[in-house]
UniProtKB/TrEMBL annotation:
The lineage of its organism: Bacteria, Bacillati, Bacillota, Bacilli, Lactobacillales. The keyword RNA-binding applies. SUPFAM superfamilies: Pseudouridine synthase. It catalyses: a uridine in RNA = a pseudouridine in RNA. Keywords: Isomerase, RNA-binding. Its EC number is 5.4.99.-. This is Pseudouridine synthase.
Length: 303
């Protein structure tokens, strides 16, 4: 792939490129794996001294697929795609990446898709992951440079994600709130997490969108940090676990058997178009069915 940059001051090529999130590893790849650096269409090296107005062009070599990732053909619900990014509406029941327990994953499906399309860059770069039973928007970078640029946004916490969840508890849930509680591993499990004073900082904001019988609430949630199981742990901690989330005490008797969590909003700055990119999804069918059943109960209670 080709990318062009204009020098706005006298500096070395590598310094200019660093300011555009071109890492040392990527420069090494350009140097040793078939890429090139051009200044005003003339090949130069990374320490060449630029003048104001010089045009720097880098040609990044294509990325081969990871050999250990098995391609598995599977239908994909693609929300958006261009040469740099792909956004997927992830279904329930599939882990993001392979593990000891999961081999039929979203990463396997994306690799197969890239191979079927014969894309020049075939490595799978996941920017935002979702748990196996969480549905909604997942963001992929289609080449390493795009991934590096979004990693910067992740570090600055400027990629905004919102989730919809159905929660239920025995007390009263405030109309909106900010849950700031550290999260660490549970002492008796390698899977579950818990609020732990010695854990890592974690912050979750929420707003109640609707309330239903059985003390069930539809909440819009914004993640400020990205700890494992963060939303599930935080809402369980305040006494309102997600419906269907038996791992953290959620109810299983209201018609949904997976954690009722859906990533419905994703926003990030597209570093290539310079635009703010915003994507939204509606509620899933299983959310809608639970809500309809609860609304029927509400009508019966009133009558």
């Amino acid at each position: 792939m080709r990318f062009d940059f204009i020098a706005d001051k006298k500096t070395k090529v590598k310094t200019l490129l660093k300011g555009h999130d071109v890492s040392k590893n990527l420069l090494a790849k350009v140097k040793y794996k078939g890429g090139s650096i051009l200044v005003n269409d003339r090949e130069e090296n990374a320490i060449y001294l630029l003048d104001i107005g010089d045009r720097v062009t880098i040609h990044i070599p294509d990325e081969e697929a990871f050999e250990k990732l098995t391609p598995i053909s599977h239908p994909l619900d693609i929300v958006y795609e261009d040469e740099h990014f792909l956004i997927l509406n992830k279904p329930v029941g599939y882990a993001s990446i392979p593990s000891v327990n999961h081999s039929n994953t979203i990463a396997n499906f994306i690799k197969a898709y890239y191979l079927e399309k014969n894309y020049p860059n075939k490595q799978v770069h996941i920017v935002t992951r979702l748990d196996r039973d969480t549905s909604g928007l997942m963001l992929f970078a289609k080449h390493g440079y795009a991934h590096a640029r979004l990693d910067k946004q992740l570090q600055k916490r400027s990629i905004e994600k919102h989730y919809l969840a159905l929660v239920s508890g025995s007390g009263e849930l405030a109309a909106e709130g900010d849950i700031v509680e550290p999260i660490g591993r549970s002492k008796d499990s390698i899977i579950t997490r818990t609020v732990d004073p010695m854990g890592k900082y974690a912050r979750t904001s929420y707003k109640v969108l609707a309330s239903y019988p059985e003390n069930v609430h539809l909440v819009d949630i914004k993640l400020h940090t990205g700890r494992t199981h963060q939303i599930r742990v935080h809402f369980s901690h305040i006494g309102f676990p997600l419906l269907g989330d038996d791992l953290y005490g959620g109810r299983l008797d209201l018609g949904i058997q997976r954690q009722a969590l859906h990533c419905h909003y994703l926003a990030f700055h597209n570093p290539f178009t310079k635009n703010e990119s915003i994507y939204k999804l509606n509620l899933t069918d299983d959310f809608e069915e639970v809500i309809m059943d609860l609304q029927k109960k509400e009508v019966r209670y009133k009558n």
